[in-house]
Amino acid sequence: MSTTQAITARELVLDAEDRFVAAGLVFGHGTDNARDEAVHLVFHVLEFPFDVSDAMLDRVVSEVRRTAVEAIIAARITSRRPAAYLTGRMWFAGYEFQVDERILIPRSPIAELIIAAFSPWLEADELFRILEIGTGSGCIAIATAFAAPNAVVDATDLSGDALALAALNRERYPAVSKRVQLFEADLFPPTDDRYDLIITNPPYVPSAVVAGLPPEYAHEPVMALDAGPDGLSVVRRILAQAPDRLCGGGALIVDIGTMAAAIDEEFPAVNFTWIDLNDGGEGIGIAYKRDFHA
Question: Does residue 2 lie within any of the structural domains?
Fold first, then answer.
């Protein structure tokens, strides 16, 4: 697109969409199509809210802003970095989080449960101790703290770099920051605490599948994706320890993506309920302590 002619924000979005399609980009890090990806990037540069008016969309964009839009669109195409890494931010369960290559880009369908305050599966007001395993950016732990106002939320990650970013995100939300505790740990924190809820979006992609993922996924930390030859190496360890770390009426919520059938096959003694989501997504399961059978 020429930088000398008058160009509106709407035209910038449509041009970016066409170029993304032509370049064969892959989406799946908060957007699932070229139009939404273009909106994310163009609106970020122009500092537009997502509910921007038609009048604003049809205003001519200054040359300085057009140049900035061109730079980020070109970077998306040439580097194949996901849009969230280019903008440094992503939304999850209605909250904005800082993101970068230290962490997996927030996109778990668990957000739908958090927005609903875990209804009808749990009573949020009766959750007092919560553990999130593999917190990454801290988005699930922080959003859960808002949804469960009486809870202290412990959040673990094996990556100190990820926890440094989670700490920054925690400080963005002082209303809950004192109720979110971060631990550098392999799955469970170094305590013997019992929890009303354990929630996790662990790595679940088989190693061979990770090796064949599109270039966009190569920018994410491999440890957040790769779960061994069968994709179950991490969840296998979580399921082995979870019953002893749950209170009597406690529950485990997992996001295991496409691996739900494999979980049911390998762990018939765990009676997961796989939740039908209104907003799409799969592999969100809940198992109460009573659903773990020896």
Answer: no
Question: Which tokens sit at 141?
Answer: 């732990």
What is the per-residue pLDDT for 279? 84
pLDDT of amino acid 5: 76
Grade residue 113 by pLDDT with cuts at 50, 70 and 90: very high
Among candidate residues 87, 117, 146, the one where a domain is terminated: 87
Closest CA to 216 of 75, 111, 18, 41: 75
Strands (DSSP E) contained in the chain are: 89-92, 95-98, 129-133, 152-157, 180-184, 195-200, 246-255, 273-274, 284-288
Residues 183 and 236 in one domain: yes
Q: How far apart are CA 293 and CA 273, in angstroms?
A: 14
CA nearest 45: which of 30, 62, 20, 29? 62
For the chain, the farthest-separated pair of C-alpha atoms sits apart, in whole angstroms, at 71
Q: Give residue for tokens 């305050």.
A: 117
Give, in order, the Cα–Cα distances in Å from 118 to each of 132, 138, 209: 14, 18, 31
Strand order in the sheet with 284-288: 180-184, 152-157, 129-133, 195-200, 246-255, 284-288, 273-274
Q: Residue 68's domain spans which residues?
A: 9-87
Please indicate, yes or no, if residue 272 is contained in any of the structural domains.
yes
- Say yes or no: 18 and 126 in one domain: no
pLDDT in tens, 160-185: 999 999 999 999 999 999 999 999 99
Name the β-bridge partners of 154. Answer: 131, 181
> Cα–Cα distance between 15 and 3 in angstroms, integer?
12
User: Is residue 122's pLDDT more than 60?
Assistant: yes
Q: pLDDT value at position 281? A: 81
Percent of the chain surpassing pLDDT 90: 94
pLDDT tier for residue 45 given thresholds of 50, 70 and 90: very high
N- to C-terminal Cα distance for the chain? Answer: 64
